[in-house]
């Protein structure tokens, strides 16, 4: 089965303008950054090719796996980087999850329209052959599960737990207003933290998990009673699952709802509370939070509150609205701004536009090396020198023709033959390695180029490219900054 193009005319075109995140009907005063958040834009939903997503995830490398489900719902989420350098999360379903590709595309396109600042927004999908893939925004600060149950530095503070409850309620309220009242398997793994530390609800939960409509893959103890009875999910089932999330937030551990309700009825609320939160909350606030969880976990679906009630109940429990989420969580916010590049090469490397990088390296040739006009300053004409020049010529021809495998072979011979190393040869071989998916070798050669010419911006930019391919984005950013700094230094010296 091939890629579906004619059947997806209803999908947004990649050329469509980006979709702005809708403002909440009730603007949240919880964060000082709200005004900025509302101005953020999300790319328009589009259909990606399988080759694009293979490149983005380095052929679905296990190194890029950020989460995977068990045997009941065999699907994996990968971290990926698109060619425009945007980081994404790519969910790869099992081959049997969506046999009908058109149904998958239609479902994904519908979910892709549900945009909100409290959601991890869906930005694309792919259905080629047996592959079924979803593409969403990438959240760099892990899941609620990680911060609650597997924390390294500090437990999640009380105020942040309240904020999670409120943000998730906002997201569910928006989904409800968009007539998406069913959210499948709401749990701590479905809540992620963005670059600002703000909690967001994954859009993946708006998709059915498989062809048989199974909506819960977690422990049966946490599954809504009506689903166990009928195998069907109703809007009130989502409220029940929200209640289990509130239990997680209160206790900092997995407590089966039946056990939690027994503690609540027995007035043993303190036994329910996470001991690490002692002294962080008022008893009245904790009691209200517990009561809210209890209401959500009622056995009869009709006795559970609606989402509007949840919003109104959680909102007043927030007491530190002005404190940014990353501050509450003790996260270091990445405020690095890409420098203004002074050369087309720097800009191309920042965008990871490999076609432009190749064109620029071709046009630049060897002019950045001293004596380039004398063919690398070879001092005497001998047969050995003639062999070196021929090897260089064949390497340059292969590089020009994008025959990167042969370019590597000729340049490797040249490196051994030359008495004086050439930064340009190392740079060209580095790029050739990149085009052959050998990022570590590319990084090594780019570093060798820097050894040859210590202040050569090209060497830094190529290192940035290789580091990005290896997923080392912070180091790549540093290399881009260093390259730009040397670019500026050169420019100033020329002006002087």
From TrEMBL:
Every Protein kinase domain range: 63-329
Origin superkingdom: Eukaryota
Annotated region described as Disordered, given as residue ranges: 1-37
InterPro entries according to UniProt: BSK, Kinase-like_dom_sf, Prot_kinase_dom, Ser-Thr/Tyr_kinase_cat_dom, TPR-like_helical_dom_sf, TPR_BSK1_C
Catalytic activity line of the entry: L-threonyl-[protein] + ATP = O-phospho-L-threonyl-[protein] + ADP + H(+); L-seryl-[protein] + ATP = O-phospho-L-seryl-[protein] + ADP + H(+)
EC number(s) given by UniProt: 2.7.11.1
Subcellular location: Cell membrane
One term under GO cellular component: plasma membrane
GO BP, sorted A to Z: brassinosteroid mediated signaling pathway
Keywords assigned by UniProt, alphabetized: ATP-binding, Brassinosteroid signaling pathway, Cell membrane, Kinase, Lipoprotein, Membrane, Myristate, Nucleotide-binding, Serine/threonine-protein kinase, Transferase
GO terms assigned for molecular function: ATP binding; protein serine/threonine kinase activity
Recorded topology in the membrane: Lipid-anchor
Keyword Iron set for record: no
Recorded coiled-coil stretches: none
Entry similarity comment: Belongs to the protein kinase superfamily. Ser/Thr protein kinase family.
Name used for this protein in its record: non-specific serine/threonine protein kinase
């Amino acid at each position: 089965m091939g890629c579906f193009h004619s059947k997806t005319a209803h999908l947004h075109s990649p050329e469509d303008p980006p979709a702005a995140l809708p403002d909440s009907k009730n603007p949240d005063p919880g964060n000082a950054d709200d005004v900025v958040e509302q101005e953020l834009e999300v790319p328009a939903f589009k259909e990606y090719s399988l080759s694009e997503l293979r490149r983005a995830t380095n052929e679905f490398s296990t190194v890029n796996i950020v989460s995977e489900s068990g045997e009941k719902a065999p699907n994996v989420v990968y971290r990926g980087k698109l060619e425009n350098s945007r980081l994404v999360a790519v969910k790869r379903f099992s081959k049997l999850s969506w046999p009908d590709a058109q149904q998958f595309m239609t479902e994904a396109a519908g979910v892709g329209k549900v945009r909100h600042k409290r959601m991890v927004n869906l930005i694309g999908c792919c259905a080629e052959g047996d592959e079924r893939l979803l593409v969403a925004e990438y959240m760099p600060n892990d899941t609620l599960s990680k911060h609650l149950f597997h924390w390294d530095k500090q437990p999640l503070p009380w105020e942040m737990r309240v904020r999670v409850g409120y943000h998730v309620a906002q997201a569910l309220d928006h989904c409800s207003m968009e007539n998406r009242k069913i959210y499948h398997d709401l749990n701590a793994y479905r809540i992620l933290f963005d670059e600002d530390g703000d909690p967001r609800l994954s859009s993946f939960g708006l998709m059915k998990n498989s062809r048989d409509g199974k909506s819960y893959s977690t422990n049966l103890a946490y599954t809504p009673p009506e689903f166990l009875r009928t195998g069907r999910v109703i809007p009130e089932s989502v409220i029940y699952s929200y209640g289990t999330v509130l239990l997680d937030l209160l206790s900092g551990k997995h407590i089966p709802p039946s056990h939690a309700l027994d503690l609540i009825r027995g007035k043993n609320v303190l036994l329910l509370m996470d001991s690490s939160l002692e002294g962080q909350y008022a008893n009245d606030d904790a009691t209200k939070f517990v009561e809210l969880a209890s209401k959500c976990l009622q056995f009869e679906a009709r006795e559970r509150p609606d989402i509007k009630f949840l919003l109104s109940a959680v909102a007043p429990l927030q007491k530190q609205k002005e404190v940014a989420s990353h501050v509450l969580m003790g996260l270091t916010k990445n405020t690095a701004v890409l420098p203004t590049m002074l050369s087309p090469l720097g800009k191309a490397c920042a965008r990871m536009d490999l076609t432009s990088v190749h064109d620029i390296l071709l046009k630049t040739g060897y002019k950045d090396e001293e004596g380039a006009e004398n063919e690398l300053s070879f001092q005497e004409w001998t047969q050995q020198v003639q062999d070196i020049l021929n090897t260089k010529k064949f390497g340059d021809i292969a590089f020009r023709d994008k025959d990167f495998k042969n370019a590597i072979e000729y340049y490797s011979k040249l490196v051994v033959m030359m008495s004086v190393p050439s930064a340009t040869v190392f740079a060209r071989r580095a790029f050739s390695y990149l085009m052959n998916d050998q990022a570590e070798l590319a990084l090594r050669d780019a570093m060798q180029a820097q050894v040859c010419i210590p202040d050569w911006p090209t060497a830094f930019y190529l290192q940035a490219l290789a580091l990005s391919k290896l997923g080392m984005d912070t180091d790549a950013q540093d290399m881009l900054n260093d390259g730009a700094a040397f670019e500026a230094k050169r420019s100033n010296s020329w002006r002087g």
